[in-house]
Design goal:
The chain folds into 2 domains: 54 residues, Hypothetical Oxidoreductase Yiak, Chain: A, domain 1 (Orthogonal Bundle), CATH 1.10.1530; 37 residues, no CATH class. 51% of the residues lie in helices and 10% in strands. By secondary structure, the protein is mainly alpha-helical. The protein contains 4 helices and 2 strands, in the order αααββα. It starts with 7 loop residues before the first helix and ends in a 6-residue tail after the last helix. The protein has a two-stranded antiparallel ribbon with strand order 1-2. A hairpin with a 2-residue loop joins strand 1 and strand 2.
Length: 110
């Protein structure tokens, strides 16, 4: 069987459009699509476009939700424990890292 190759840009656009068609917002769809393609490009196929079907199924069944904000469960000056509420891990993890860096900066550990 011959391998089919697509440019990362075209594949990112295609995956983004699939998520948009499933009701995911533009920014979130772009971020998730980019993350999946970058995983493939780095050799982590298990975290790449292989997941698109699972994500679309999860969106359809409610196991995965778009447009969610995390819920803070525990918070201290240097700790933030949050529930992602079935959101996209790529999106929520990036936001959490940014929030933690801002939170810890005054403590000199960010």
């Amino acid at each position: 069987m011959e391998k089919v190759r697509y440019s990362p840009e075209k594949l990112t656009t295609f995956v983004r459009d699939l998520f948009r068609a499933a009701g995911v917002g533009e920014s979130e769809a772009s971020e998730v699509a980019t993350s999946l393609i970058e995983s493939n490009l780095r050799g982590h196929e298990s975290h790449g476009v292989l997941r698109v079907g699972d994500y679309l199924d999860g969106l359809r069944t409610g196991e995965l939700c778009s447009g969610v904000e995390w819920q803070v469960l525990t918070e201290t000056p240097a700790v933030l424990v949050a529930d992602g509420r079935r959101g996209f891990g790529q999106v929520l993890a990036r936001r959490l890292v940014v929030a933690l860096a801002e939170k810890c900066r005054p403590l000199g550990i960010a």
